[in-house]
Automatic annotation (TrEMBL):
Residues 23-325 form the Enoyl reductase (ER) domain. This is NAD(P)-dependent alcohol dehydrogenase. SUPFAM superfamilies: GroES-like (SSF50129), NAD(P)-binding Rossmann-fold domains (SSF51735). It comes from the Eukaryota. One of its GO terms (molecular function) is oxidoreductase activity. PANTHER family: PTHR45033, ZINC-TYPE ALCOHOL DEHYDROGENASE-LIKE PROTEIN C1773.06C (PTHR45033:SF2). It comes from Colletotrichum scovillei.
Length: 329
């Protein structure tokens, strides 16, 4: 391949609803493309690793549940990557050739802005913006963060998706997590694993839930103080209350949605916070108003985080020599 050429996976012939390990590649085509050139104020990065998240599966399959809209034909998917700077076209840039970096998935939410700035339609690998499943990618100078020195590219590629989402949940809301507080975290997916690792490293006690002994063992290895099978304990909020002396948890990271949101609220202390980060279950009816009013409790929806959160997370991981837990496809 000549030096002015590159390769990219593009979404073609979109098939809706294909979300299995055997099927997600039905919408992908590996193509030779021109090597991109950074405009003024931009950085060219050689991508060494990309992570696949639930949001990416929704995009790949044009799932109507994703409010960002289905991808245009030919879009490069995936939003979270890690690589090495190979060209800098900005005289005031902090970056230099050879720097290892991670990218922000959504460049709409700058470091000094609130969550109101977040726009789901401008995420990388989404509607009409190329993502990172390609050899080279161009980023704005302010859309990158340093890759923690002890992480591999594969580990670092997960930071801007599940890890920054977990960071936002724990520290980006009205009640930032404090040392010694209790957090309830559901499952063993990307955001759940990230949330456990970050919360434990921050000095919090984690009560984690999953559905099998194998997964519960993983949660314990990640640092969860308590790991409980919620299939055997459908009213698991009672377990949380027992473990906290009747007080309840300070925060709950709810990654499931309709089938767990009522239990999540019941597991909270007075004035506690539920971060709603997922919708893995079918829609259900619940009367949440009494818990919200009489418990002065809050449900906060979120997705990803700002560039400032990604930069703070990068420093946090670097200073604690923390290694991410990643799966492979």
């Amino acid at each position: 391949m000549s030096e002015d050429k590159s390769q990219a996976w593009r979404i073609r012939n979109k098939v809706q609803g294909v979300c299995t390990d055997e099927g997600i590649d039905q919408n992908l085509s590996l193509e030779e493309v021109p090597k991109p050139s950074p405009k003024e104020g931009q950085i060219l990065v050689r991508i060494h690793a990309a992570s696949l998240n639930y949001r990416d599966l929704l995009v790949l399959t044009s799932d109507p549940v994703y409010l960002g809209g289905g991808p245009d034909d030919g879009i490069v998917p995936l939003g979270d990557g890690a690589g090495i700077v190979v060209e800098v076209n900005s005289p005031t840039s902090r970056w230099k050739v050879g720097d290892k970096v991670i990218n922000a998935t959504n460049s709409s939410w700058k470091a000094d802005q609130t969550q109101a700035a977040f726009d789901i339609k401008v995420g990388l690998g989404g509607k009409n913006i190329d993502g990172v499943l390609q050899r080279y990618a161009v980023f704005d100078d302010d859309a990158l963060a340093p890759l923690p020195s002890h992480l591999s590219f594969e580990e670092a590629a997960a930071l801007s998706g599940p890890y920054v989402s977990a960071w936002n949940a724990l520290f980006g809301g009205p009640q930032p997590l404090k040392r010694g507080e209790t957090v309830v975290i559901q499952g063993t997916g990307g955001v759940s694993v990230a949330g456990i690792q970050i919360a434990v490293a921050a000095g919090a006690d984690v009560i984690a839930f999953s559905t099998s002994e194998e997964k519960l063992d993983l949660l314990r290895k990640l640092g969860a103080k308590h790991a409980i099978n919620y299939k055997n304990n459908p009213n698991w909020s009672r377990e949380v209350l027992d473990l906290t002396g009747g007080r309840g948890a300070d925060q709950v990271l709810d990654v499931v949605g309709a089938s767990t949101i009522a239990e999540s609220l019941r597991a909270l202390r007075q004035d506690g916070l539920v971060s709603a980060i997922g919708f893995m279950s079918a829609s259900e009816k619940h009367d949440l108003i009494p818990e919200l009013i009489f418990g002065a409790k809050t449900i906060r929806g979120l997705m990803y985080g700002s560039l400032g959160m990604l930069q703070d997370l990068s420093v946090f991981v670097e200073t604690r020599d923390q290694t991410n837990h990643c799966g492979s496809l």
